[in-house]
Amino acid sequence: MNNGLRILLIIGGVTGVMAIACPLMWAEGYEETMLKGPVVDTWSVPAFDPAPVVLTGASWASIPARTADGKVAGWVHEGAEGKFVALDEASGRVLWQVSTGPVPADLVRKDGWRIKELVPAVPLTLAGPGVYLVAGNRTWMLVAEGGASVKTGNFPSQVPPATGAACLVGGDFWISIADDRDGGVMLSAAGVLADVRSDRPAGCLPAGHGTELKIISALQNAHADPTPYAPDDWVRGYPPEVCGKYNKSKMRRTGNEWCSDMRTTDGDPKRSVMIHISDPVFREEDEWRMVTLPDQYSGGIDFNPSIVGFELSWPRAFFDMTEYRHVTAQNNPSSTSFEAKKVEQRTEVTEIVASIARTGELQWARSVWRGDMARVSPDFSENWSYTRSLLLASHAGSPTQNLYVFKPGMLLAVDQATGAPRFQVGAPLPPPTW
């Protein structure tokens, strides 16, 4: 690659037509390019088309399990009753379902995201050999494939509650617990809970750190890059042209102050995606490409919402993005009306899900929600970050490749290639109040 700095050419365009940009080549193996494709202004992104509701009256209550044979399965609530369902990923058709009885008191949820809920505090669902695990707080369930049987149990008092992560280990389940030591407890596929704590098994990758991203889960396809780096590798494998902060004494860039955690679909660090402030950076083998999102100074189009979460499904990458703006609304009563004139200041929020190719093209973008900012906290940043979703991709081997948009109470399935909805179960639970 050319190590010299190339001139960046930007040609302005009207809304709906993206600016054209030549890539910047900063160093060997690194390229910067402007987002390309049919990009529109953040506030002009169209909403997802309506999707059919598969289970009327149901509230989706768990992080879903996605299997190689084209199923998505999980736990739903129908009022005070629980039910485990398995759906066809292509159509949303119910393949089978079984009642799990009254919802345990420790798993009742009446509101949406909570303050500081970076890792979803909802039950998880994990598929094992002929059985599904549902685990949350202090409750576990094992549901046989096809719904033939349901076993339930509780953690004894000495076992800390589950934390939203689990792995399959030799046909049994390792469930992460809140012991501040990254520990867990084993549950056999037959329903026998171990009476001793165990460390995280090798190959059971953590979700990553939530210091930059607002919502992550160990059950996503994307996981933290587990690659160990040498103690003197201050950039930890990141390209310093993107992440490093210039160190005058060392006359070079060091550290990774401007990047969040590195994550990948399959543990291969050469397929990594990371976030530089709010621009995605893609790695393919030894090449890095940062895709700059255009703002108001980039040729007339302002599509630069903050990335709060992402999911990977090689070679696709999906991003959950939010933005806010302050607006003024007034009623303008007629000259003959006794209605008082009112001027109201509001803060509007939009949430967008976008598919961005590793070459820098926007494949599609849709708005999940747009409206007044929720009031869940006296902290403005908490109110802003409330509007978000957890993204989960289908199993890599599934014949149907969906992207699932999850909020407590709702699961929306969309086609990865087009963003067209396939089905929806439930609706988002209301915000908590303060």
Concise overview:
This is PQQ-like domain-containing protein. The protein is mostly beta strands and 434 residues long. It has helices at 240-243, 380-385; strands spanning 10-11, 20-21, 24-27, 30-34, 59-60, 65-66, 71-78, 81-88, 94-102, 124-128, 131-136, 139-144, 150-154, 162-169, 172-177, 183-187, 198-199, 223-224, 245-247, 252-254, 263-264, 273-276, 279-284, 287-292, 306-313, 316-330, 343-356, 362-372, 390-393, 402-407, 410-415, 421-426.
Describe the fold and architecture:
This protein has a 5-stranded mixed sheet. Strands 5, 6, 7, 8 and 9 form a 5-stranded antiparallel sheet that branches. A 4-stranded antiparallel sheet has the order 10-11-12-13, with no helix packed on it. The chain is globular, with a radius of gyration of 23 Å. The N terminus is likely disordered. With 434 residues, it is an all-beta fold. It has 2 helices and 32 strands.
Gross morphology is globular
Q: What is the averaged pLDDT score?
A: 89
Q: What's the arrangement of strands in the largest beta sheet?
A: 3-4-24-23-22
What's the story with the biggest beta sheet?
A: 5 strands, mixed
